[in-house]
Amino acid sequence: VTDAQDVVDAVPRQAPGEPAGWYLFGITRWSPALADALASLPELGLGSRSPQVLPVGDLAAVVTTVRLVDFAPDTLAARADDPVWLEQMVRGHNDVIAAVHERAPILPAKFGSVFARTDDLGAAIAPMSAALAAQLDRLEGADEWAVHIYADPSAAERRVAAEDPDIRALKDEVAQARPGRAYFLQRKIADLTAQSAEAELEDLAEEAFRLLAVHALDAEITPANRSNRNAEGWPEIVKAAYLVPRDGVSAFLQSVDGLSSHLDGVTAECSGPWPPYSFAGESLP
Amino acid sequence: VTDRLAEAREVSLLELLDRVIEHGVVLVGDVTISVADVDLIYLGLRVLLTSIERADDLGVTSAIRKTPT
């Protein structure tokens, strides 16, 4: 039993005569060479057949046939809490998109888009084709990189404690205050330090995001989750995606690795190259 | 080596879910059956994402540069 056979059950092939649909992976430019390349790949994605490339004008839909029964609301509801099935589906979806992305620009479709007939697919693509083609031009030769940036909160606190004039003035006051007042002032210093450190982290986040964006065609920032931490236990201050041209990848990765030398107590980690998931849908009607 | 591979696999699934849940081009056709309409699937994906993130918080994985596979 090979690995490829292990995944074939995510979406079984349809039996002859069984209602079939077309699972859409994404939109690319029509190219016979791409169609041949995908057809010669082993079974990829959703454990179903090799993906097909259906021409729609100058564009093409990357699809595979699926059993409609597998996408009926009842079936999906039953599988929604099956992590193994969900993972297989999501990985299958990505495997095909990544295989196309290696060869040509692709706009990944929303996960789980199934069409009943190819005519419907063509009718859905045709009116949007100019916008889709423009998006493909924009993504030509570029990859998405996922970036997480983390900051050491105690470094930020030390910095504001040393530099913030209000905090320094309060500290001078503490030195001369009587015990009761000194206690009150210490509390005030702690509050102010926490507040300033938070503002400092936000400034660092913006600066770090911009430093990396210099090497990107486009960048998208999403709210960071402070409870995500790196190996040092530092909280995440930036979660971002960058669209990076392939001929500029080494400069981008150097600036990711070198971020800590530009910003004290800040590190970045990244994964990629990814297909341009975060940049495909922008500016579409 | 196996641990590192497992780690990379988790990281790539985490990043992948993040991308797949939030993004993608929507084509609307008359006879479209879209999982997008079935909120339960997306709810399932979010639960999966959260459970991996939680494992991440416990130090089971750490986001390191890896080529997604």
What does this structure look like?
The complex is a heterodimer of chains A (285) and B (69). Chain A is of the alpha+beta class and 285 residues long. In chain A, 45% of the residues lie in helices and 22% in strands. In chain A, the strands form 2 sheets. In chain A, strands 1, 2, 3, 4 and 5 form a 5-stranded antiparallel beta sheet that branches. Chain A has a 4-stranded antiparallel beta sheet with strand order 7-8-6-9. In chain A, strand 2 and strand 3 form a beta hairpin. With 69 residues, chain B is mainly α. Chain B has helices at 2-22, 39-57, and one strand spanning 32-34. In chain B, helix 1 (2-22) packs antiparallel against helix 2 (39-57). The longest helix of chain B is centred in the N-terminal third of the chain and has 21 residues, at 2-22. Chain B is elongated, with a radius of gyration of 15 Å. At the A-B interface, strand 1, helix 3, helix 4, strand 5 and helix 5 of A face helix 1, strand 1 and helix 2 of B.
How is this fold's topology laid out?
The complex is a heterodimer of chains A (285) and B (69).
Chain A: H1 3-6, E1 20-29, H2 32-39, E2 52-56, E3 59-67, H3 73-79, H4 83-101, E4 106-108, E5 113-115, H5 118-125, H6 129-139, E6 142-151, H7 153-163, H8 165-176, H9 179-213, E7 218-222, E8 236-245, H10 249-257, H11 259-262, E9 266-274
Antiparallel strand pairs in A: 1-3, 1-4, 1-5, 2-3, 6-8, 6-9, 7-8
Chain B: H1 2-22, E1 32-34, H2 39-57
Helix pairs in contact in B: 1-2
Number of strands of chain A: 9
In which range does the helix fraction of chain A lie? 40-55%
Q: Which regions of chain B have little confidence, pLDDT < 50, spanning 5+ residues?
A: 60-69
Beta strands of chain B, count: 1
How would you describe this structure in keywords?
A: 285 residues; alpha+beta; five-stranded antiparallel sheet; disordered N terminus; B: 69 residues; mainly alpha; disordered C terminus
